[in-house]
Structure formats: structure tokens, C-alpha cells
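Hi V.,

You were right to ask for the full record rather than a summary. Here it is.
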Amino acid sequence: HQPSLPTEGEGDYTLTPNQRMKGVVAVATLVLAACMVSVHAIAPGTNWAVLVAGSNTWSNYRHQADVCHSYQVLHKHGIPDSNIIVMMYDDIAKNPENPTKGVVINQPDGPNVYTGVPKDYTGSQVTPQNFLKVLRGDKAGLKGVGSGRVLESGPNDNVFIFFSDHGGPRIIAFPNDVLQATDLISALTYMHTNKKYNQLVFYLEACESGSMFSGLLPTNINIYATTASDPDSSSYACYYDNKLQTYLGDVYSVNWLQDSDKANFTVETLAKQYQIVKQETNTSTVEQYGQTSISSETLAYFQQGPAAAAQARRAEKQSSKPVRHPSLDAVSSRDVPMAILQQRLKSAQTLGARSMVRQQIAALQRQHSQIDRIYSEIIAKVDQGSTLEQHMRKVKTTPDMYDCIDRANLAFHRRCVNLGKFENALKGLTSFVSLCQTQKADTMVEAIAAVCGEDRGEFIGGVY
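Predicted structure:
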């Protein structure tokens, strides 16, 4: 109800025309403010999450453990399962090598983080194409695939994305494929253009993960990203478990997850979590990209659901058992398969067991040699007289190199070695970055085709 204003001639309440105008403006302002508050109360924004583990097999246990743990953090803080989409191969909990079936842990003697985790996309459904369809909200494209669920967020909603797997320069891996930086940025830009979020936060665990955003992620589309490493370095695995004979987590992921386990979400900001994780992750250089002003928001804006539900879940009793620092046994993600075999060799109790592990080590070494030979032959065709070692140096990437790097990476993946399946081949992509300083994309693709043929075939040692 808008009160009437007194008119001239009404005794002590007489107002001048100027006073009456000020009164009208004041009342209109109050009414408009009330309407805005009412609209916000009717349609508040909600938080959504997409959690992705891009690998499979027992040696990559840690990636699915990271993702399962991230689900538990979000679930505990009240984000409903209806707003959480999980993509993981799901071959760990019931793996033949798992002595405790149905249990996945992310730290030594830790709680089972597998309990209750949604299985939206598993097995062969874990692909870069399906991941991008989830982000774009492409329901039609995922009809009949997994749960078919996609992000249904809108302009008032915040989105949190966590991805854990292997990576290389401008590339991240899936179980049998790869996702290039340009395709990821294109999907994120599409989301912004189509008002799929208010603000979006992306945490990325992978080697050279900074290369997915550095120089690429716009600073004006309300996206804030942090990565496990800079564009040129490896990320690190941690927590080797003698019983499970694999690594349970990744240093960057474990650090942000353990911080979120104990943080006050209404007080701690994204910036504070970034500082904590950067300081604790002393094995690689944690970086941040995009619209860094978003980091002033509290964790509640992205990792928490409705206040009532979050409060109830925070009240659940949590284990306070101390955990050793993840960097104490950290190993470069690229070296994990060999590190696991070396650990198994140490713990082998019989001559037969030691002999079997030594055979596995020899097979892995042959595979490394075969991959290195392929890279060396490609290098010889485009830069005669140089070696793989000479081109494995860190090189500053510039925009004029992007097309060459991307086309070379994709050609190598399609023609030589499946980069999603053989993570140890990702390391050699650094040589392509070096070569692309002086070489054209066509030259690189032609050399790769000459060495590997038109398509991947069968190769001794299972390389391609």
C-alpha cells in the first residue's frame, strides 16, 4: 500500500511541489527494493557440481578416490544428489585387486568415500564428448546414455567442477580419449553465453593442468579456476598404501579436500583455500586463472547446499585421526606405474612373486622405450640432428603456437599412441611444444603420419 501525500492547504502538513516529488521518489525506491527482495526470495540461486575422474585401472585408483571424496564433501555440506553429476569409470570399488570390496579410501586408514556416490556416467560412458554435453546441458545428446543427467543450472546458480586425471600440454585425458584445451574453453564460453551459471569455479588435477587455462580462460565470464600445476610441470600422487599397493590420492586434490573437510564454509574464502593448498602443495606449482575476484567468495557459495541441510550434515561426527602430510611420499604422476612396481618388488615375499614383478617392470620399460622411439623418429623428420632430450625442455607457449601444438597432439593420439590409455606417453608431448616454436602444424602432422601411419594399429608391447 502506497501512502497518500498531503496536499497544499492541509495545515501543518503542507508540502512544496519539490518536497512532494522527493517523497514520490523515496516511496518508489522502497517499493522497487521490496520487489527485488521478493523476487530473490522466490527464485534463489542453487549450487550445482560436476565431478569427473578421467582414468581407469587399479594403478590410477587415486583419481576416483579424489572424486568420491569430493562428493562426500559436497554431500556433507548439503548439496543434494539431484544437483551433483558424477562421471567415473567405477572399476575400483569392486576391482579384483581390492581386498576390501566396496571400499575406496583417499587417505591412509581413511573412511570409505565410495558410500552413496551417484553413478551417472561409468565405464565407456566416461568420454570428453559426454563431459562437454553435461556442461552444455545437452539432454538430447545424452538420451539413453547413463543417467542422462546434465547441468540444468541457470543465471542465478553457481557451478563447481572438479576434474582429476592425467594431462599434458593443452590436453587432459579420459580412459580412452583426450580433451583439448580449446574444446573445454569453448564449452565454458558457451555456458556463459547461454546463462548456464552466475559464477563457476573449476578445480583441475592433472599434469600441466595450467596449460588448459593459461592465456585461454577469459577474465570477464565469471569463471575462477585453480590447477594442480603450472603449464609446464607434473602433478603428484601421494599416500602409497602397502595393503592396496597403489596410491590413494593426489597432493593438490588431497590438500583442498582435507581443507574443505575441516573448513568453516561461511567464513573461509576460495582465496584462503587457494593459499592453503598452494602452500601445502610443495611438489608442484598450484596456479589460479580467470576472474580471480571471485576468490573473495566463501566456500559456501560453491561447495554448500541449503543452509538447513548443510547444518545438519556438518553435525555428523567426523574422524579426527591425524594424517601424514601428502608430500612425504609424493611421486610424479608420470612415474606412478613404475613406482608401484618398485614398491611391490620391495614387499614381495617369494622368489616367484619377485620374478613376476621384475617381468612387469621390464615390460613397462620396453613400453617406455617404444614410445620414446616413436617421438625420436618424429623429431628426426622435422628437425634433423636433434634429439628427444633436447626438445623436452620447458618452453614458453605463445598463441601463434596453439594450432601447431593442438594438431600435433591430436595426430599423435589418433595415429601413434592412445594418450587416454597410455599416460606415460603424455610426457613426450612437451617435445611438440618445443618443435612448434619453429615448425608449422602441417609439417608436424605429416611427420607423425609418416612415422605412425594413418591410424593406430597393434604394436608389440601394446603401445598402439
